[in-house]
Amino acid sequence: MANLVIVESPSKAKTIQKYLGQGYKVAASVGHIRDLPAAKLSVDVKHDFAPKYAIVKGKEKLVKELKALVEKADRVYLATDPDREGEAISWHLATVLGLDMNDKNRVKFNEINRSGVEKGMANPEKIDLDLVDAQQARRILDRLVGYKLSPFVSQKIRRGLSAGRVQSVALRLIVDREEEIRAFRPEEYWSIDAKFLAPSSRRAFSAAFAGDETGKVEIRTEAQANAVLSRLENAAYTVASVKKGTRRRQPAPPFTTSTLQQEASRKLGFQGKRTMRIAQELYEGVEVEGYGAMGLITYMRTDSLRISEESRAAGNAFIEATYGRNYLPEKPRYYKSRANAQDGHEAIRPTVPSLTPEQAKASLSADQYKLYALIWKRFMASLMANCVQDTVRAEIHGANAADAAAGRYCLFTAAGYTVRFDGYTKVYVAGTDEEEEDESALPALTAGDALKLKDLGGNQHFTQPPARYTEASLVKKLEETGVGRPSTYVSIVSTITGREYVTREQKQLKPTELGEAVTKLLKEQFPNIVNVKFTANMENDLDRVEHGEVDYVAMLHAFYDGFDEELKKAKEKTQGMKIQLQEDVTDIPCEKCGRMMVVKTGRYGKFLACPGYPECKNTKPLVVETAARCPKCGGRVIQKKSKRGYTFYGCDHYPDCNFMTWDVPTDETCPQCGKSLFKRRGGLIVCEDEACGYSRKAERKRRKKDEAEA
């Protein structure tokens, strides 16, 4: 065997093997082969934070196989992902496999197609030790904060909790927003809306009251609204002025990691984890009919807006051939990345711009097709000409005879546009989190035109509190404030939801009582840990380590020495303190002392305990009852957990009765035998008594709109 190439994933290995052909063997490390063991801190704080790495459990056989391949190979190439994490994986591989750190054996593929692989193989480099140090610094920082802070939080609130360097800041943002919402006091305001008919049209158009002869007027109360409406009794309406203009709308830039997650959430309803999993599949390679195995998109962890001139030329050629030369701008459009963006990779784009989503559709899963279409359309639109719109803004005066004679009037405004040239919108229009003004074309209007009033009325409104973060808007906020990096956004959200610090209500992220308690404790005792600017500055320091400007050991000392002192003071200050959550208090009295028992978490899960500990040490299992009765013996059906944490239901007379089911108990009874009914996946309501066999489809929940019409 002449050459060995080691990548991270088996699917990536399969794609690259097809491009390299004979003379190469492509193997996969399946991610990290070495890491900090989870059982202990694994960082020697007293000796400059020396990490104590070990082979990842379960990968001993794989490491042995890789060593055997290395021994047979004439040359070894390390082709892990082109980022900090990938560089660290290559370094660990080189260390464990005994490769020379001075050898130019590191290759990077920004895109996994023939040209991308050939370009990477033709330009091998040394492992970038600055990049490795930056990854090690992040890993050690996160380990120090997590392993030192988590026990403190667990001791003060509840067993098994965690606190992290970046997750705690993200949680604070969500909690702060919830506090803003609670503190918000709605303010009343009114609008006066009218519909008019122009002399040249039978279609009514909308206009809104804006003021009067004195200038802009804001209406705060119903009385003020009625006063304006009374002025408009028997009023005549005339077009006072018509202003025409031209508006040019520019396309959004190609995707970065964060904007891809945001847009996939808005347009496809994907959570970040799902988006990045599918993007990884598209990057690593898919068998496409007529093309073979190929990566469909460039590397998906990036915050750069740069694209290669080669891809620009290919995209331009496709646009000109498909839509015409007029759909290209006069000059190429270049987007500027944000100040602290890493420019090591291009923006996310299709590797072969001429491969349309429709051409690839038959070779892709439904999710892969949707995401590829989103990326392809966004990239193509970013190269295209502006959308040109003709705008019209009309001012309308309304006045009764007395007001008109005195030069007084009420002012209404109407705005609209027509599309002169669709430009990039022929392919794609970016989504937004904010509601856009609803504009449509206005009829032909001329100053002096008399208008016919079709409808006029006052409408009450109230100011709205700030919206809770969605996953997309949280990622946007993290990016704007410099907290986290493209590779960490998904894990941040996964951690705070998985730890039950935050729940999802539809798409919104709402903090739980537990999440708020953790944030309050950290704000009081460790203000820097949950400080957005402090965390952003630390991210900048990690970037400086990556560029060789800062020694990572010195950076760790600068953080940890102060943090360790802060931790000691917090432990002294909160000695004996225990935060009791309302959500943990039950209505079950303690049989020994009468206090209401609380939910505790132990090694084997949740249980009930008396809050009077240590005076009263009473404990008992936590039983979650349902409204259903056991179809076998008539006992209570209770909620249980499997060894893997999945919820199922069983009889409380176990082991005397062995009834169990994955179906969810309801409070309904069977019309045939009178036993409890259960809801099964697929929308069926069933009787669990085999002798009965009753089943029916579950009723669809009625929407509020349906209920209102009923």
From TrEMBL:
The lineage of its organism: Bacteria, Bacillati, Bacillota, Clostridia, Candidatus Fimenecus. The record marks H32, R138, R139, D142, Y147, R301, R499 as: Interaction with DNA. This is DNA topoisomerase 1. It holds the Pfam family Toprim. InterPro entries: Topo_IA, Topo_IA_2, Topo_IA_AS, Topo_IA_cen, Topo_IA_cen_sub1, Topo_IA_cen_sub2, Topo_IA_cen_sub3, Topo_IA_core_domain. Monomer. PROSITE patterns: TOPO_IA_1, TOPO_IA_2, TOPRIM. Its EC number is 5.6.2.1. Gene3D superfamilies: 3.40.50.140, Bacterial Topoisomerase I, domain 1, Topoisomerase I, domain 2, Topoisomerase I, domain 3, Topoisomerase I, domain 4. The keyword Magnesium applies. GO terms for cellular component: chromosome. Residues 2-112 form the Toprim domain. PANTHER family: DNA TOPOISOMERASE, DNA TOPOISOMERASE, TYPE IA, CORE. Residues 162-167 are annotated as: Interaction with DNA. One of its GO terms (molecular function) is zinc ion binding. Belongs to the type IA topoisomerase family. Keywords: DNA-binding, Isomerase, Magnesium, Metal-binding, Topoisomerase, Zinc, Zinc-finger. It catalyses: ATP-independent breakage of single-stranded DNA, followed by passage and rejoining. SMART domains: TOP1Ac, TOP1Bc, TOPRIM. It comes from Candidatus Fimenecus excrementigallinarum. SUPFAM superfamilies: Prokaryotic type I DNA topoisomerase (SSF56712), Zinc beta-ribbon (SSF57783). Releases the supercoiling and torsional tension of DNA, which is introduced during the DNA replication and transcription, by transiently cleaving and rejoining one strand of the DNA duplex. Introduces a single-strand break via transesterification at a target site in duplex DNA. The scissile phosphodiester is attacked by the catalytic tyrosine of the enzyme, resulting in the formation of a DNA-(5'-phosphotyrosyl)-enzyme intermediate and the expulsion of a 3'-OH DNA strand. The free DNA strand then undergoes passage around the unbroken strand, thus removing DNA supercoils. The active site is at Y299 (o-(5'-phospho-dna)-tyrosine intermediate). Residues 128-567 form the Topo IA-type catalytic domain. GO terms for biological process: DNA topological change.
